[in-house]
Design goal:
The protein has about 220 residues and is an alpha/beta fold. Helices cover about 50% and strands about 10% of the residues. The model is unreliable at about 210-220 (pLDDT under 50).
């Protein structure tokens, strides 16, 4: 079933920010009192959940919101991350297919808009941005309520196991992309409804090719 609403993650799903994130986390290490991560350690942590990552950094719970705010400020001062190839085409196809688009991210709306650019940003109807102490599940509920769309009529896409857990907690189906922060193996273990290895697979999974074929058949019959 083609969803009425698609809730998209930003970092690691639409924007290639993983390299910058490692650099920013290491730059913040002296300030927050943890050891910088090597490239090998960072790669190994891609297979772990959020709790394991925080444990590896040695962060105390009260430091997490402060680090998130610090990284968000650093992102605002940095050049916007590059979009993954195919993002513009994906957003255009989804909008043309009649799917309402929402961006749900712990990044700021301003940063996301800078990276997306005016044309891509204009395709997104709902924005739920910035870090939240109660996590992404609350943002999902807020967007669903604002759109007046039931979870069963929506679909989410993210790149981390915590995205999958948040979607499950509000009754959302979710697909996971393998080009972001978490490894394909870690994502598969979290049992999403779909795993996408390339951008072009998303519209097909959501039924947009079937919609175009049906429209073509109606035209030929008329």
């Amino acid at each position: 079933m083609t969803p009425r609403l698609l809730l998209l993650d930003f970092d690691g799903t639409l924007a290639d920010s993983r390299g910058w994130a490692l650099m920013a986390v290491n730059a913040a290490a002296p300030r927050f009192g943890y050891a910088p991560l090597s490239a090998a350690s960072a790669e190994a942590l891609r297979g772990e959940g959020t709790t394991a990552i925080l444990r590896a950094l040695g962060l105390r719970p009260w430091q997490v919101p402060r680090l998130a705010a610090h990284l968000r400020d650093a992102a605002s001062a940095a050049p916007p991350p590059a979009l993954f190839p195919g993002v513009s085409e994906l957003l255009a196809a989804l909008q043309t297919g009649g799917i309402r688009l929402a961006l749900v991210t712990s990044n700021s709306e301003a940063n996301a808009r800078r990276a997306l650019g005016p044309r891509n940003a204009a395709r997104i109807t709902d924005w739920a941005c910035d870090a939240a102490l109660l996590g992404k599940a609350r943002k999902f509920r807020t967007v669903l309520r604002a759109a007046g769309i039931a979870p069963a009529e929506a679909f989410a896409i993210g790149d981390e196991t915590r995205d999958i857990a948040a979607a499950r907690s509000v009754g959302l189906r979710i697909g996971a992309v393998t080009w972001g922060y978490a490894t394909a193996e870690a994502l598969a273990a979290a049992a999403p409804d779909a795993i996408f290895h390339d951008m072009a697979a998303i519209p097909a999974f959501l039924g947009l090719q079937l919609m175009r074929a049906a429209a073509s058949g109606e035209t030929q019959a008329s």
